[in-house]
Design goal:
The chain has about 240 residues and is of the alpha/beta class. The chain has 6 helices and 14 strands. A 10-stranded mixed β-sheet has the order 1-2-3-14-13-4-9-11-10-12, sandwiched between helices. The structure holds S-adenosylmethionine.
């Protein structure tokens, strides 16, 4: 972790916090610090949460299909947080009439959706991220990821531009910092559609800080949490340079 952060006491655990004018980054377990975040305090949530991949993926350069084996080597610790533990916290922290965007693959979409509607989120839209490249699969080659969009409370008019299919190239090669890094321009588009200047967007699982970069580029404020030192430092350096 870089110099420049203070300390935040959160009950039993202490988490480091790094602040700039536009961003507050916590090096912490989201579930450990969630209790220190106030009800109805953020204007939008965008996150790409940790989950295990069952089957699929690559192993020793080959497709890993056998026996539905759990493919855990994801490049970060998933901590295996059930959706039912963290999604209710998001509902509590988000302001009323505001939007929650959560990324998922095809396998986790149903359990994420159930956890969301069970805590009263209203389903708004299923957005498709067309990655414009395919990865091999048992059935059809996969080319999409999904973004579930929910609102808390009543509908609020906003400026929804584009369509439910968002085409973006995924970060690759030297520009890729994190194993599941998402395109900044896609997040920036959602932030611009769902918030106003200087409003606050929150990401409880920020990884390399793509949501933070999108918010700062869009002139919004950002709060992010990351549990792993390596990814927290990547986020911190990234935000520092903007
Ligand atoms: C799918 S990645 C997010 C990648 C991010 N969208 C990006 O563009 O870099 C999920 C991140 O959540 C972090 N994570 C896992 N459990 C966590 C927890 N309990 N609290 C905070 N972060 C956590 C992982 O270390 C990982 O970096």
């Amino acid at each position: 972790m870089q110099e420049g952060g203070g300390r935040l006491e959160t009950g039993k655990e202490a988490a480091a916090v790094y602040k700039t004018e536009k961003a507050t980054l916590y090096y912490a377990d989201f579930l450990e610090i969630a209790g220190s975040m106030e009800d109805n305090s953020v204007d939008m949530v965008f996150t790409d949460p940790p989950f295990e991949l069952a089957g699929g993926g690559m192993k020793n350069g080959k497709l890993n299909y056998e026996g539905g084996e759990i493919f855990r080597n994801y490049g970060f610790s998933t901590k295996n947080i059930p959706f039912t533990e963290w999604i209710p916290e998001i509902y509590r922290i988000l302001k009323s009439r505001r939007y929650f965007y959560v990324m998922t693959n095809d396998r986790n979409i149903f359990s994420i959706h159930k956890a969301c509607v069970d805590c009263n989120f209203k389903f708004c839209e299923l957005l498709v991220l067309d990655k414009k490249m395919t990865v091999p699969s048992t059935y059809y080659p996969k080319r999409a990821e999904f973004i579930l969009m929910y609102r808390k409370g009543n509908y609020r008019k906003s400026h929804f531009l584009g369509s439910t299919v968002i085409e973006e190239r995924m970060p690759r090669g030297k520009e890729k910092r994190h194993p599941t890094e998402k395109p900044v321009s896609m997040i920036e588009h959602l932030v611009l559609c769902s918030t106003l200047e200087n409003e606050v967007c929150f990401d409880p699982f920020m990884g390399s800080g793509s949501t933070g970069e999108a918010c700062i580029r869009a002139d919004r404020r950002f709060i992010g949490v990351e549990i792993e030192d390596k990814w927290f430092t990547v986020s911190q350096n990234r935000i520092m340079q903007l």
